[in-house]
Write a structure and sequence with these properties.
- This protein is α+β, with helices and mostly antiparallel strands and 451 residues long.
- The strands form 2 sheets. Strands 1, 2, 3, 4, 5, 6, 7, 8, 9, 10 and 11 form an 11-stranded mixed beta sheet that branches.
- It is built from 12 helices and 17 strands.
- It is globular.
Length: 451
Amino acid sequence: MPPASAISAAAAARSLRLASRLTPKSAPLPRGFELSAVSTGVKKNAALDLALIHSTQPCTAAASFTQNLFQAAPVRVSRTILDTTGGTGIRTVAVNSGCANACTGVEGDKDAQTMVDLACEAVGAPKGAGLVLSTGVIGQRLQMEKIKAGLVKAGKGLGNGDEGALKSAATAIMTTDTFPKYLSRALTLPESGVRFTLAGMCKGAGMIHPNMKVHDPTTASATRPLHATMLGVLMTDAPLTAPAATSALSHALGDSFNCISVDGDTSTNDTIVLLANGLAAPKTTTMSAADTATFATHLRTFARDLAAMIVWDGEGATKFVSVRVTAPTEPAARAIASSIATSPLVKTALYGQDANWGRILCAVGYASVPGGVALDAGAVSLKVRSNGGELKLVENGQPKYPIDEAVASKILAEEEIEIVVDMGMGSKAQANYYTCDFSDEYVHINADYRS
């Protein structure tokens, strides 16, 4: 195994390159939103560790939460607030890093609620008009005195329209991330002609295999797409009702945050929040069906691009891998893609640039396919491709001997790789999953996480 210092130097160089390529130089905020980021002292070395988001106007809100049995206190508290408010009247979101406030019992719930109360007080919002997100070490209590002082400071530091605020806030919610993940886009609704802004940030690099439900406060249940903690806050000044926000977020997650995997571990804290204050069209209360559908499409693309940053920045990753599967049903295709994306043997082979394609078929073969769908091993086709070329490895269940190892090596030497599986049998349903390789650096990071 190479020395940790050498691996980390390579990872640092890659991080700088990815940040420059994937994040925007300018990141305007939607109308009415203001953000701040401070250091509370929870993290070492005075690193930013608390972000505060505020809207000058009440927002409709939608959120998606982890299905892990040990849901963290901020997940439970935020879900309850959405049930109480019906997803309306939300003014602020507080996000801390360094401590997940998970597996902390009744006291943890009290701390999360106190964070909400303090955030509302810091921005002058009514009590209960805020949400809370946390990430960091599981099983430790929040240092509430530091959090309280930090929220007061963050409230005083809010500044509307500061284009650097989104980057600073994205930095404050990082844990093992190597660069802040954020985007901002100006878009147009076709029927009304309304120009709106969509901005967002997320974090995550390890403990990434989200399996979230989009929470529907009108039924106290959820509509469920398929699935270091993953957190994200999406903000817009588009005029969305609470049901429209919930529907748009559900539509977006199926091809974004719920189809990424770094290590197959689903966090206790995974949360995505969508806030919409309507200031792009203050006289509009309900968008037309055409505009609503267009917004949902924009949000889906936006969320996918944000989620991809998490995979690019996977702990110790050197490769970004798209897994594309065609199968008789969409749930079957998704289950197979997930099985490939989470296989340690597939991921280590990718790191070693080893065309060990039998590992991919093995992962296909043990996938937990729902719905009793019958699959035929004799109908499967497999190929890999990248900027280095394309290589068919299996066609209709038969290996394409002889495998050209030189071409395979050239394909796998690229940083971005695509694995394509067709289950045959006239399959037309498709699913995508995004993953990365497993490297030495991943082991170093997770062996030393608390030190």
